Batch of 2 targets.
Target 1
Amino acid sequence: RKEVEQDPGPFNVPEGATVAFNCTYSNSASQSFFWYRQDCRKEPKLLMSVYSSGNEDGRFTAQLNRASQYISLLIRDSKLSDSATYLCVVNNDMRFGAGTRLTVKP
Amino acid sequence: GAVVSQHPSWVICKSGTSVKIECRSLDFQATTMFWYRQFPKQSLMLMATSNEGSKATYEQGVEKDKFLINHASLTLSTLTVTSAHPEDSSFYICSARDSWSTGELFFGEGSRLTVL
């Protein structure tokens, strides 16, 4: 089993839609979790950290489920500019999930 | 915020030559830096973990003699692709984390290597 697994998508959604991605991890001792965003031919950039109690940043909500060993990212009211690949990082080993490709269409 | 600078941003070289890519943390010290490779439409793959003052730790399947990593200071790590071949053409990205932090990774802008 891979350390970090993501549904690669692609997710094609209309503008204004709500979309959610999950990322499962295998190491139950993992302590730090992050969501990154990568635009085509660019380096990843931090979108948000994931806290145990869940956290929200504008239209983005991140949650951690330790029992089932996954983190999630929810995007509300999708914008065209949200189109990107979303990567999860489980900090223990610096390995990325394969990324989930999101395309928001007008 | 912290900045990681990577150079060159793109390079074209002939098959058989060696190419060096630099990764610098500009405003923080990085005991550890990470090197990734990304082929088109594929995920970031961790190649190696670069440790300041010691040997790098390579991921399974990554040839250490092919991809030489040097981390001589707390702000600089280099990746040298030796005897490059067309199949080495890829997007190479480094990242670093503040030595005092266990949090966010900061990424360089990436280096796009094309081997002719």
Note: Chain B has a mean pLDDT of 90.
Target 2
Amino acid sequence: QKEVEQNSGPLSVPEGAIASLNCTYSDRGSQSFFWYRQYSGKSPELIMFIYSNGDKEDGRFTAQLNKASQYVSLLIRDSQPSDSATYLCAVNPTGGSNYKLTFGKGTLLTVNP
Amino acid sequence: NAGVTQTPKFQVLKTGQSMTLQCAQDMNHNSMYWYRQDPGMGLRLIYYSASEGTTDKGEVPNGYNVSRLNKREFSLRLESAAPSQTSVYFCASRHTDTQYFGPGTRLTVL
């Protein structure tokens, strides 16, 4: 069974710090990787996706992918209280042209003012 | 442009009752999805539809049926609800890499 593992947290960081969220996956053939943010009681929304090994930056967010280690991470720089949410890692498994994503259980991030 | 809409927002059922969760999108997307989210379990795919008239099972399809009668609408039916189906249900539609989620339906089965 294809699995996506995340530390459930909660991860607590002070305002202005870097928050680091981690995710590992079991399907070595996975091709694309996604980070969703979900505020309490709301629906998930896409923050970033990454396909290639290395870093991908978008504003304060950086996604990092290491396919050899089957590891993907999300860094949030200059964390703000508004970043407090659950972050879901999702993986598009091997041959996944239909984007039937496998989600991790999510990491709860709290940014303290 | 409402995006993805779901009805109802909340529902309480008794064991054995049936109901249909409705989902509609106005973004002209081909692909649509139904997920359930349980505490500590993340999102799990129930069914997927690549286009009008086509559906495919996801990770947890047992106890559910779906219908994609047109491009806009993708409904999820519980024929005989069980307490194990108590969950928050999300519908999503996809354009390229991005799945857009509806606001969810919170279902309780007593």
Note: The interface with chain B takes residues 4, 8, 32, 34, 42-46, 49, 88, 90, 98-106 of chain A (CB under 8 Å).
